Amino acid sequence: MLSSPADEWRGRLGDMSALASQQESAVPRYFFNFHDGYDFIDSIGSEHPDISSVRAEAVETIGERLRGTLLNNKDVSAWLMNVRNEAGFTVLILSLAATVQVVIPKTLAG
């Protein structure tokens, strides 16, 4: 049986769709595990095309958490973000310690 041009076109679209799905899933997934006295294990992860994108997300994420924590006068003595790839290998480590001290001279305190 000969196929019509419409059937051939549908076949090509199906092939292109399958290829697009394969390419989309080819983007690696990374898991951003975080420790700030408690362990937060990322079981979902997020997709990133390269290590620069992974680094940017790690820095932005820890920056947001840092801002909120310091504004609430909480401890940031030993934070660690460990980013792993889908194979479970560590690809990036971000460690951080920060403190805020208010220093009031004795002449003003009293």
SSE order and pairing:
Elements: H1 5-25, E1 29-35, E2 39-40, E3 46-47, H2 51-71, E4 76-85, E5 90-98, H3 106-109
Antiparallel strand pairs: 1-2, 1-3, 1-4, 4-5
- Along the chain, the helix and strand elements come as HEEEHEEH
Mean pLDDT: 80
Sheet of most strands: 5 strands, antiparallel
Cα separation of the termini: 99 Å
Q: What's the number of helices?
A: 3
Class by alpha and beta content? alpha+beta
What shape does the CA trace take? Answer: elongated
Low-confidence runs of at least 5 consecutive residues:
none
What fraction strand?
A: 25-35%
Describe what you observe in this structure.
It is a single chain. The protein is an alpha+beta fold and 110 residues long. It has one domain (27-109). 42% of the residues lie in helices and 27% in strands. The protein has three helices and five strands. It has helices at 5-25, 51-71, 106-109; strands at residues 29-35, 39-40, 46-47, 76-85, 90-98. Strands 1, 2, 3, 4 and 5 form a five-stranded antiparallel beta sheet that branches. β4 and β5 form a beta hairpin. The radius of gyration is 24 Å and the shape is elongated. The termini are far apart. The mean pLDDT is 80.
